[in-house]
Amino acid sequence: MLLTTFILAAICVVLAHGRSEPLMIDPPFLQPNQEDQFKDADKNTDGKLSFDEYLMKEKFWVDMQRENFKNRDANGDGFVTLQEEQAYVKKMEEEAKKQMEAYNQEKFSEYDENKDGMLSKTEMSAYADKYLGVLTDKAYDDFFSLSDINKDGKLNYKEFKEFDANWLGANLTFKPVPIRPFIAIDPPMPTKITTN
C-alpha cells in the first residue's frame, strides 16, 4: 500500500504542476480496502491483530526494511554494526556519484550535436529549453557567461557540470507551464499489492 500511495501521490504532483487550484482526488481511490487489508494481516484469523500481524498490514514496507537490513548486514550475522552501516552508506554514496556522472556524460553527449566535446551557446540553449524548461533570456545569457570560466563562448564538460549543478540558484526564468486538465484513470488502478 505504501508504494501504491507513493506512486499515486507522485502522479498527483505531476498532474497538479502549474495548476492554480489544488488537484482533488477522491479519497477512496487512494485508500485500500481496509477489511481486506485487515484480513490479509490476520494470519491466525482470530479477528484481532498482534503487533507482528499489524506490521504485515504494511508488508511491502516491512519487506523493504528487511532487504535494507540484509544489505547492511555485510557479514550475515543478523546484526548491523556501526561500521557496517557506515560502509553501506559510503558504498551507496559512491554508487550515486557514479550514476550521476554517467547521467551527466549522457546529457552532455546528447546535446553536443557537433561532437566537438564542447557545448556552444546554441547547444546549451537547446538543453536549457528542452531539459531544464527555462527561457533563454538575459538571465540565461548572464548565467551562461558566468559558467563559461575560460570565456571561449562554449562550455567544456567541467563547466557544463557546474552549470547543471547551479542553475536552480541562478534566478533563471522558467517557461510557462500549460494547465493540464485532470485525466481520469479508467479503470481505477489497483490499491492492493499482493505478494507471494
From TrEMBL:
InterPro entries: EF-hand-dom_pair, EF_Hand_1_Ca_BS, EF_hand_dom. It holds the Pfam family EF-hand_7. Residues 99-134, 135-170 form the EF-hand domain. CDD domains: EFh. Residues 1-18 form the signal peptide. Keywords: Calcium, Signal. GO terms for molecular function: calcium ion binding. SUPFAM superfamilies: EF-hand. This is EF-hand domain-containing protein. It comes from Plectus sambesii. The lineage of its organism: Eukaryota, Metazoa, Ecdysozoa, Nematoda, Chromadorea.
